[in-house]
Write a structure and sequence with these properties.
α1 links the parallel β4 and β5. By secondary structure, the chain is of the alpha/beta class. The chain has two domains: about 140 residues, 3-Layer(aba) Sandwich (Rossmann fold), CATH 3.40.50; about 140 residues, Rossmann fold. Helices cover about 30% and strands about 20% of the residues. It is built from ten helices and 16 strands. The longest helix is centred in the middle third of the chain and has 15 residues.
Length: about 350
């Protein structure tokens, strides 16, 4: 039986010798709290040394969850998806210079009491908690952060930014596109599930919405609607959580023959990617563009008002490589090797952790 002491000024495992436990055992976690005294909780410990415990840590935003869980799924180890939100004053402090007590008092809700072998975080709002867990674990937790954490590189064991961020270092593995959960097997299953409802789909339209950098205006919405009106064939349109209801209503009025997902019932997103001959994606979402180009199909990027230099570099690199084109209502056919960086990054995580690849 392994006893893990968590107490002192900052919760953590610094007093626990970093060793793996073999055989069928359970560990007791003694959570020392000045307010509540001592509580003992029984937590199962993995018995197979080739299987690692994994957290996928985000703030709950769909794009962040997709990336963290996508990498976790590609690794093939059981994982727990955890949503964290910081309290004040920790919310206001730089990620790598947090006041003491973040893990005990600064997080809404309770983190699992046994630190994982691998922590995958995504998005800046998860950085303070991920870095604090890595410190508290005393070397036991291998911490991977997806996207640019905007902290000193040594805060993580591996950082996976997008290539257009320009981040470099010995613990950096840049990704050409965002990581995600889409695989050829999932697309094939989705095609069978949705073929009866979507049929021979010509165009799938993936709508984003208002963000800090982008928004729909009357002009950009009119350009999108006019382009889709010129399309000869069946069109399916799905909004995202950020798509404003007025945008969907306006498109429905302009495109009475298109099929719209109304948010009720199963999400057709994968089915649309699997069945459509062409895919139109609004430019505000790196995640949706990345998922679309994993299919190898013609992908068109629809413009929005506003802009971001970072996202502009991302789109420009894909245009220069002949992967995406601007959407103007004209459809064409072109070929490119599907872009899916998730398996490569998963292999890099395994290599750095010293884990054997799956047979």
């Amino acid at each position: 039986m392994a006893i893990i002491w968590r107490g002192g000024r900052e919760p953590g495992l610094a007093r626990l010798p970093p060793r793996r436990i073999d055989g069928v055992r359970r560990s007791l976690i003694l959570n020392l709290s000045r307010r509540n005294g001592v509580t003992v909780t029984s937590v199962p410990v993995p018995t197979n040394p080739s299987v690692r415990t994994v957290w996928a840590l985000t703030n709950g935003e769909a794009g962040k969850v997709s990336q963290a869980e996508g990498l976790a799924e590609a690794l093939g180890w059981p994982f727990e998806s955890i949503v964290v939100r910081l309290r004040r004053p920790w919310l206001w402090s730089p990620a790598h210079r947090q006041p003491p007590g973040l893990l005990r008092f600064g997080v809404e809700g309770n983190l699992p009491q046994l630190w994982p072998d691998l922590l995958i975080s995504c998005g800046r709002r998860s950085v303070p908690v991920a870095a604090a867990v890595r410190r508290a674990a005393g070397g036991r937790t291998f911490a991977v952060h997806i996207q640019n954490p905007r902290t000193p590189l040594p805060c993580f064991d591996l950082i996976v930014p997008l290539a257009h961020d320009g981040l470099a270092g010995p613990n950096v593995a840049a990704s050409r596109a965002a990581l995600h959960r889409i695989t050829p097997e999932k697309l094939a299953a989705a095609a069978e599930e949705w073929r009866g409802q979507l049929g021979n789909l010509d165009v799938a339209v993936l709508l984003g919405g208002r963000s800090r950098s982008y928004r729909f205006t009357r002009q950009t919405l009119d350009e999108l609607a006019r382009g889709l009106t010129d399309v000869a064939g069946d069109i399916a349109i799905t909004p995202s959580r950020r798509t404003e209801p007025g945008i969907v209503a306006a498109l429905k009025a302009r495109l009475p023959g298109a099929w719209f997902w109304d948010g009720a019932g199963p999400n057709p997103y994968l089915g649309m990617l699997a069945l459509a001959r062409h895919i139109v994606v609004t430019e505000d979402s790196v995640s949706m563009v990345s998922e679309a180009i994993s299919t190898g199909k013609p992908v068109y990027v629809a413009g929005m008002a506003g802009g971001s230099r970072r996202l502009a570099r991302f789109h420009a690199s894909l245009r220069e490589d002949g992967i995406v084109r601007p959407f103007d209502g004209r459809l064409a056919q072109w070929r490119y090797e599907p872009i899916n960086e998730t398996p490569r990054i998963a292999a890099e995580v395994r290599r750095r952790m010293g884990a054997e690849p799956d047979p």
